[in-house]
Amino acid sequence: MIPVTCAIIRNEDDEILVVQRGEKTDLPYKWEFPGGKLKDGESEEMCIIREIKEELSMEIIICSTFEPVVYDYGYIMIKLIPFVCDTLDELPVLSEHVDFKWIAPENLRSVDLCEADVFVADRYIKTQGMVTACNEPFTDKEQSEELDRDLKQMINSMMSRQEAEWISTSAADNPELFRKLLDYSFKGGDQKLAFRASWILTKACEKVPELIYPHLSRMIEGLKVIDNESTERSFMKILTMADLKRVSERHQGILVDHCFNALRSGFSAIAIKAYSMEIIYHLALIYPDLAHELSSTIKMLQSEDTAAGIIARGQIILKKLAEISGTDQGSGH
């Protein structure tokens, strides 16, 4: 029996990602939840995180798991181990599959899934609504050490999007809690805590954008030292929501340099490149001279072997830049 992991990946709208197998696979053109086989000495959790990064260039956060599915395809018997995961990424980069789509959970049964994945889909649908969030809110009267200990434990044991939403709502009402989440985001020695904390910060800032302004300079300066790509992506997303006119010229300059470096780097994640385009565009509204440099950089990316999602996002930004300059910023194709 071959152990295989798969990920039920949810986006911000609670839609589920499914991917389509290619013509030359053993189940041609069938749809499935992404994942793959365990390597020797690899845990199931390490396997699914690695597989999703290799297959889709996506970062995920594991929220929960449920009972594996054992299925005999005749030529192979597999033990399919499902993980329920959340992601901030909306644009997978396909390396092994031919197509992808986000669909509502109730529509999973309408997709032509691989046989084992059908059982996974059914079990996921049945588990919806079974996980509940913590009901004990933090208050301003709690001592700092107790808040710190309980908050870290809650973030590290977080199992559902509902819990993340609850913590982010609490942070919107509690400046001390918001500050602690930002502190945790800089903890390079605990990447799991840092990513989850920064992920919750994005949700809090979506609810109340004003929350970030007292900490915006620290976040921008932190981009230079963060060694956690997931945290960087969360920070960049928050910065796309901020009014950058409220940032000092020095910090605007730091941000411009960081974003252009990310766009020109061959190692930056797709989401970070996409957020970088958006941030520089917002700064170009303040400093129109940036429009030409951004336009040239986007066209350079389009001429290279760039992911389709970045090309599409670049086209949108080019149209916006054309409105600033009053000229045609198109790619010429």
Characterize the structure shown.
- This protein has 333 residues and is of the alpha+beta class.
- It has helices spanning 44-56, 115-127, 144-156, 161-173, 175-185, 191-207, 216-222, 229-241, 249-264, 270-284, 290-303, 308-325; strands spanning 2-10, 16-20, 31-32, 35-37, 61-65, 69-72, 77-86, 99-103.
- Strands 1, 4, 5, 6 and 7 form a 5-stranded mixed sheet that branches.
- The protein is globular.
- The model is unreliable at 129-143 (pLDDT under 50).
Describe the secondary-structure layout.
Layout: E1 2-10, E2 16-20, E3 31-32, E4 35-37, H1 44-56, E5 61-65, E6 69-72, E7 77-86, E8 99-103, H2 115-127, H3 144-156, H4 161-173, H5 175-185, H6 191-207, H7 216-222, H8 229-241, H9 249-264, H10 270-284, H11 290-303, H12 308-325
Parallel strand pairs: 1-7
Antiparallel strand pairs: 1-4, 2-3, 2-8, 5-7, 6-7
Short key terms for the protein model shown above:
49% helix, Leucine-rich Repeat Variant, alpha+beta, Nucleoside Triphosphate Pyrophosphohydrolase, five-stranded mixed β-sheet, 333 residues, 2 domains, 12 helices
Number of helices: 12
What helical percentage do the residues reach? 40-55%
Q: How many strand segments?
A: 8
As a whole number of angstroms, the C-alpha radius of gyration is 21 Å
Please report which band the strand proportion falls in: under 5%, 5-15%, 15-25%, 25-35%, 35-45% or over 45%: 5-15%
CATH-derived architecture of the largest domain:
Alpha Horseshoe
- CATH topology of the largest domain, by name, is Leucine-rich Repeat Variant
Give the uncertain stretches in residue-range form. Answer: 129-143
Reported for the largest beta sheet, the result is: 5 strands, mixed
Rounded mean pLDDT is: 85
Q: Report the CATH C-level class of the largest domain.
A: Mainly Alpha
Output the CATH homologous superfamily of the largest domain.
Leucine-rich Repeat Variant
- What is the structural class? alpha+beta
Order of helices and strands: EEEEHEEEEHHHHHHHHHHH
What is the general shape? globular
Structural domain count: 2
N/C terminus separation: 51 Å
